[in-house]
Amino acid sequence: MRYLPKSPADRAAMLQAIGIHSVDDLFSPIPAECRLTRDLAIPQQMAESEIVDWFKQRAKENGEGYTSFLGAGAYSHYRPVVIDALVQRGEFLTSYTPYQAEFAQGTLQAIFEFQTMISELTGMDLANASMYDGSTGAAEAVMMAVRITGRHSGVIARSLHPEYRDVLNTYATHQAIPLRMVSFTDSGQVALKELETAVGDDTACVLIQSPNFFGTIEDVEAIAEIAHKRGALLIVSIAEAASLGIVEPPRTADIVAMEAQSFGVPLGFGGPYCGVLATKEKFVRQMPGRLVGQTVDKNGKRGFVLTLATREQHIRREKATSNICTNQALVALMVNIFMTVYGKIGLRELAKQNLAKAVYAADQFSKHAKVLFAGAPRFNEFVVETSEDPYAINSRLLGHKIVGGFPLKKFYPELGHAALWCCTELTTRSMIDTAVGLVAESERSVQTMKEVEQEVVR
Amino acid sequence: MTTKHITRKATRHISQNEGLIFEKSSPGKAAWKLPPLDVPDVDTATLLGRQERKDLGDMPEVSEIEIIRHFTRLSTWNYAIDLGMYPLGSCTMKYNPRVNEFVSRIEGLANGHPYQAEKISQGALRIMKTLSDCLLEITGMDAITLQPAAGAHGELTGMLMVRAYHESTGNARKKILIPDSAHGTNPATAATVGYAVENLKSNGRGMVDVAALAAQMNEDVAALMVTNPNTLGVFEQEIHKIAELMHAKGGLLYMDGANMNALVAKARPGDFGVDVMHLNLHKTFSTPHGGGGPGSGPVAVKKNLAPFLPAPVVTTKADGTLGFEYNRPQSVGRVRAFYGNFGMFIRALAYIFANGPDGLRQTTEDAVLNANYIRKGLEGVYDLPYSTPSMHEVVFSDKLQSKKGVKTMDIAKRLIDYGFHPYTTAFPLIVAGALMIEPTESEPKEELDLFIEAMKSIAEEVEEDPQFVLDAPHNTRISRLDETAAARKPVLRWKPENV
Ligand SMILES: Cc1ncc(COP(=O)(O)O)c(C=O)c1O
User: What are chain B's domains?
Assistant: First the structure.
């Protein structure tokens, strides 16, 4: 086996040193009836070339070469090549969690820089080293709010990513945290009147997403005011991190639960991604996850360590703020490098291009179909309602190697034939024109059908 | 340092100083360039109004070469498996094959969108199905979810299923039994799922005390969470009896699979009574640790727990194609958006392909051989609190060295000077001053010999000049850091005024 660095002679010498005859002796602690005495029924050893071929084959069956208008929590942005060049350095790739600070300053300083940039972008005082993803981060944020306020229920916007809501439900059920849903208005924003009545004296937090699942930007300040008036915290989930380049961050929030995938992380069929929590300084001791802090060594030299570990499971066990241990460090490093590459000016320009493409696409679509939620500002996603079922439209688009918008019926039955479309800096005008043309064709044929039917009736 | 104690593996070397990236920033530098906008430009003020962000504060402005140098310099301050043995017990720091990285970046796999139609997701689904089948065969279990993002997340998923199972019989039960040798995530997880944690004492041989278990087991106990081999590296020899005891009173047996590297192709948890378990693809199945993740923590269960798996699960449809099954009324729900850390599935499957059944067996045998070779080499030099046979890792204590005031963490810091990453010091809590050493199969005999030599040399230094060891490390860029100060007045981000 090519990964194993021993010759038969090495093994024999080691067995002799231990004072046994056969490696089987080392497995004698396993009772005989528990031992496997046959080969595992799994594929036989493959050469490297065969492995590569097998996966290339799978890639071919996986939509290689399609143009996509999907967003909905997973975004296609350009990834500068320096990201993979750097994260594949063995010193980052093959090191463990930086428990031994003197031997892991590289990872620790990088995380400190990550925490700094995330705090800066989200408008919070501080950020942690990462959470599994945006969905689990949002759930952890709710649990954090429950600890901070000593209250036991949550109010959740229906315009929060439906799968984030599912995850939150899973977590909340066994924490005995009842959740109330608040719906959205005709402009796609949280219904403030309804929110006002939903928030009560036992509400630990209000959790919204902005830009929300429909791509609409929420009036965070107004929502914060409603939450804070009743002593509840405001948690803002951000699924499209690129929006932070041009959209005012939720500075009035108490916790920001972000999915940073947009910053240099491949779509990768849904993971690994990079969740992160950011918050106000006064809440730091209730924050889950790892934190890197600056300190000095014996000689007064600046260095970095994992800190405030008394919040964590390895010290506090069942009283910890969370059970999280391994998180998403290498993905956070991708995010870190992406933020460094684009920086102060580039992130804004990038966001502006996203905005412009989405504005153009929504305008084009609106000539042939209905663009919903027009009354509120948007970032790079918008909802198009068609006469024909978007699943049917999409299956026709596939024939043109185009992946259409995400049909919303599955999560929002009341939205009928609506689909969520996304444009990023990678979406070209000609891609947009082609997709709009095909949707227009579908609209026209539905129209013709209707006319024909009316003819018949007459 | 006395000349006697030479470090044959490592030597001093120049490394570059490097400040924080923010300290290199200045207006007008850039590492990015966007293509020209091919649609009409927009007026952001009209579009966004007061929601428009005007300024990105202290975000950096630097050039590409500075970024390359910055992160490359930082990287050289890290130790890594690629540099040598990384014997962190319980962490299974094995070689991370480069072909894994290569195949995970193939276009079409790396760029697949989680919501693209199943028709054009057959490749990704096939990868998930094949990996699931392999893991079920390796564990001897019946059904699996790949959704959890790491070990602790797998524990959470497993515990949710335990709860759902009991609820389906009308009584969720109240508590989880956890041996005192367990990892901290085990009790933390049980609490997250709303269970009380009851400690279970280990016996004199470092195993679950079966008599104590029998006394503590009753109808209030939902499950026992064991790690097998446990965190002492000891196989729970009475595992059958433990399972029987649990099952007799309607309880379930949960296994933390962190130590599966001792069992793959040699024994299967499904064959010794385990009802639900998690695996760590970032340990046993060679996906890289990346400085603290991403991981992947699949959860495998027996048939009776299958209805409770998180939705969706991968299924084969009538027409032979693969798809996601969402309609699972008894499911615990989702534990993560989308389908899990898919990129790790690719890497783990590539590892299984490269090994095959014989390679996996040899891997396990070598892992156990290596641990026992170290044990033999250091026995007598360091105290061995439990003489029970070791599997893939061995746990010593600092009992002998602490007579000179030197603790496990001091020895660990000195080991750095010898060019090795330290072993695990934080647990198991049942060993005061533990040195938990897991070499994995990836170490050649020469590296093990160097390690043993280094550990012996440190033991001698402790006798001759304990202060020298207490002051270690001596050869790193920075000496021991003031952790108390870091926690007392936390500085968690850079600010311009810090300069
Ligand atoms: C025995 C044991 N259980 C659980 C865990 C937690 O796994 P993870 O860090 O992947 O969440 C670890 C991790 O080190 C472990 O060693």
Answer: 21-75 (no CATH), 101-352 (3.40.640.10), 364-485 (3.90.1150.10)
